[in-house]
């Protein structure tokens, strides 16, 4: 399976988790997109640093070929999925904690 396919699957899983399973609906909230806009430059900087120094190297036959800050665009997909999933779980466990207290 290509890196691209796995990256797209990660977005589908995290979106499904957010909207249908945890039902935090972060993708519909302005605060999520504002938070992601703050995180994104740091992800781009980190991706650039790791790929430009060849600490992380990608097989060109397994990616789309579009690069941003010297990293494949798929890295942005994974970063997005990670941020969305972590925040959705944060909300989920926060709700559980609040329900356990009462």
Would you kindly provide a written description of the structure presented here, covering whatever features stand out?
With 102 residues, this protein is mainly alpha-helical. The chain has one domain. The chain is built from three helices and two strands. The protein has a two-stranded antiparallel sheet with strand order 1-2. The radius of gyration is 16 Å and the shape is elongated. The termini are far apart. One of its GO terms (cellular component) is membrane. GO terms for molecular function: intramolecular lyase activity; lycopene beta cyclase activity. Keywords: Carotenoid biosynthesis, Isomerase, Membrane, Transmembrane, Transmembrane helix. Pathway: Carotenoid biosynthesis.
Name some characteristics of this structure.
102 residues; mainly alpha; 70% helix; carotenoid biosynthesis
Quick structural overview:
The protein is mainly alpha-helical and 102 residues long.
Q: What is this structure's SSE topology?
A:
Elements: H1 3-21, H2 30-52, E1 67-68, E2 71-72, H3 73-101
Antiparallel strand pairs: 1-2
Helix pairs in contact: 1-3, 2-3
InterPro entries: Lycopene_cyclase_dom
Subcellular location: Membrane
GO molecular function, one term: lycopene beta cyclase activity
Low-confidence stretches: none
Largest sheet: 2 strands, antiparallel
Rg over alpha carbons: 16 Å
Order of helices and strands: HHEEH
- Average pLDDT reading: 92
Total number of helices:
3
Overall, the morphology is: elongated
Structural class: mainly alpha
Beta-sheet strand percentage?
A: under 5%
Overall tally of structural domains: 1
CA distance, first residue to last residue: 47 Å
